[in-house]
Structure prediction request, 217 residues.
Amino acid sequence: MRLGRLEMRDVFGRVLTDREISCLGEPAWMSGELCSTEPAQQKLLAWLALTPRPWPASLDVEHVFTRIAYYGDDLIHHIVSRAIAGLPAVVADYLIGHVTFFGSGLQMLGWCGAQPSFEDRPFVVQVSAGDGTPEQIREIAVHECAHAWLMAAPSPGERCWTAFWQSTVLNTPVADVPEFARRAVSHQQADNRRHERLADALVRSWGFTNDFRRNEQ
Prediction:
């Protein structure tokens, strides 16, 4: 994905010329998969405009560990932090400012406490260890981070799908859906499959394998 294919603006909102864009160079981490959705393009351009050059390739693990909003299992906190630190800095910066992370299943199987502080972070990522290895846990975390990067941020007041909605809409064979709802359900399932394909492609461009899918039913 060439920077010149996107409309870039400086910090004052002025559209850069092709010559100015070419002088910026193209970072090694730039890829078509990183810019495969309009929300991702907007996030990328905002970061490029506000981040002083030379643009960093990645962030330090300690920087990520101390700044991500994370609740739950301490070991998974370390795994997730290292995974995020291995992603392009533009993505890691976005995750730090826009995602609240929860983890369980290694040191901690459950917990009860006061409501977490989500502040103005619109996304939530939940990582469960299950029977997975640290490598699989890292793959799961990175896959969900890819979704957060590629998707438009939820609107204020928007809520995530419940498990009931997930099981009855996304996981029900279309042939078993009542005819009056079949078209809407089919559209939702197709849109979900498209998002999964885009996230899988982005994760592979980062050097991950999506091996955690081997355990999916």
Q: What stands out?
A: The mean pLDDT is 85. The beta strands are 69-72, 99-104, 123-128. The longest strand covers residues 99-104. Residues 179-205 form the longest helix (27 residues).
